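Here is the promised in-class demo. Please do not try to memorize the tokens; focus on the logic of going from shape to residues.
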């Protein structure tokens, strides 16, 4: 086997290892063992599915739901009420029913959301026959959640066969009536586009055309990417909510489970799928609570300083400088030196923008005391002494400090140009001083 083929096989095995949650032998010389281990895991999974087939129980026995009917036909539905005393990870539903919608509007970059109450929202998650989207992908399960007072209502609409899709979509339209916005995780890129296609295919009006939308995935990418293993909902649950699923069915396996159900009508194939969908919905509710708390000044003492730094950047990008100032200040107090340094940088630039040079220069000098190799602080002090104090000699000192530690060619070019300009200013000033001294001596004589 060529080295290139070996590397390719190694890469594929690593991907299968992550997706199958199985540990394969490491090392360049263990490829055969890794392939054997993978196939043993695969056959173990097939054996388990055969066990399911042997048991073969009905859907209503495996999942506590019932068959409902509307003008488009019949479908299967699961309904559950989550009490206000329930917890999901580190979040209690008693606190989640009073979410600050002003904060949701800030997170979603949509001021219209501030007009609503959390009870006006619909949490939505789909389980589909594939992840590619398009006309061939069918949402066979639609998970929905919404608040009624202090209680959270969960409903899962399931198409037992393809011919029940229209009935499921009709039920979705009725449940969504009276709601004003959606909350999803990657819904803007996948769920809503797929539903739009399915409404068209079933000749139904698109219920969500006028709905506002809060997609939590891009928000989590913006605020938590610095410490997430990946951008999946599972990673967010574990890192942000302190919630770890047990025996959860992997998302990539769900389409296969549905196809097995279609062939066998064995409800055991779907039991874990319903649970997976329920956990997705509950995690979105808990997550929006965690996010709104994070961006609320005064109650973020124990938050990760990196999260506070990212919140400050988000608020600054929205023009909310006073709020951004608070979060940058809090981030500088953390024990993570790299994050604290970045927070001081952002804070100093905010002071600079406001013309508060005393505070800005104090931060730059402090940054250099902490790390003499901090080129950003040296460059900013060089600019300060050249353009605002009129001390090209001091500016030259900081410029040379920055040159000694900078390895970026573009920055080096700019610093060399600055150095030449400063040397010229110093030379001109010395020449001027000599002429002034000569004239003074001449007139004294």
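The designed amino acids, position by position:
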């Amino acid at each position: 086997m060529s080295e290139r083929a070996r590397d390719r096989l190694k890469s594929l095995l690593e991907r299968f290892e992550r997706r199958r949650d199985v540990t394969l032998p490491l090392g360049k010389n263990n490829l055969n063992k890794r392939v054997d281990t993978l196939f043993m895991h695969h056959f173990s999974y097939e054996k388990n599915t055969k066990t399911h087939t042997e048991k073969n129980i009905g859907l209503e026995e495996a999942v506590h739901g019932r068959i409902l009917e509307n003008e488009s036909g019949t479908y299967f539905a699961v309904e559950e009420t989550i009490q206000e005393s329930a917890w999901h990870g580190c979040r209690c539903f008693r606190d989640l029913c009073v979410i600050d919608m002003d904060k949701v509007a800030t997170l979603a970059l949509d001021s219209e959301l501030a007009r609503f109450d959390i009870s006006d929202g619909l949490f939505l998650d789909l389980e589909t026959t594939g992840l590619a989207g398009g006309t061939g992908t069918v949402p066979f399960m639609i998970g929905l959640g919404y608040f009624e007072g202090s209680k959270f209502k969960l409903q899962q609409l399931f198409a037992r066969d393809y011919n029940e899709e229209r009935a499921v979509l009709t039920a979705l339209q009725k449940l969504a009536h009276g709601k004003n916005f959606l909350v999803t995780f990657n819904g803007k890129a996948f769920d809503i586009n797929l539903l739009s296609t399915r409404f068209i295919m079933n000749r139904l009006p698109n219920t969500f055309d006028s709905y506002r939308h809060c997609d939590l995935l891009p928000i989590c990418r913006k605020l938590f990417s610095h410490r997430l293993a990946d951008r999946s909902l599972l990673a967010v649950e574990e890192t942000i909510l302190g919630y770890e699923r047990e025996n959860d069915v992997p998302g990539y396996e769900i389409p296969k489970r549905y196809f097995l159900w279609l062939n066998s009508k064995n409800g055991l194939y779907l039991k874990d799928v319903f649970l997976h969908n329920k956990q997705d919905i509950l995690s979105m509710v808990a997550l929006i609570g965690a996010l709104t708390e994070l961006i609320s000044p005064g109650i973020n003492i124990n938050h990760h300083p990196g999260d506070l730094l990212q919140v400050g950047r988000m608020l600054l990008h929205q023009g909310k400088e006073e709020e951004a100032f608070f979060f940058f200040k809090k981030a500088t107090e953390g024990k993570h030196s790299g994050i604290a340094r970045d927070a001081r940088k952002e804070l100093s630039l905010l002071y600079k923008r406001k013309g508060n040079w005393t505070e800005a220069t104090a931060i730059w000098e402090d940054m250099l005391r902490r790390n003499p190799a901090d080129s950003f602080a040296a460059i900013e002090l060089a600019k300060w002494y050249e353009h605002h104090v009129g001390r090209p000699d001091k500016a030259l000192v900081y410029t040379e400090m920055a040159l000694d530690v900078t390895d970026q060619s573009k920055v080096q070019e700019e610093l060399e140009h600055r150095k030449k300009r400063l040397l010229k200013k110093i030379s001109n000033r010395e020449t001027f001083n000599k002429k002034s001294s000569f004239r003074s001596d001449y007139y004294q004589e």
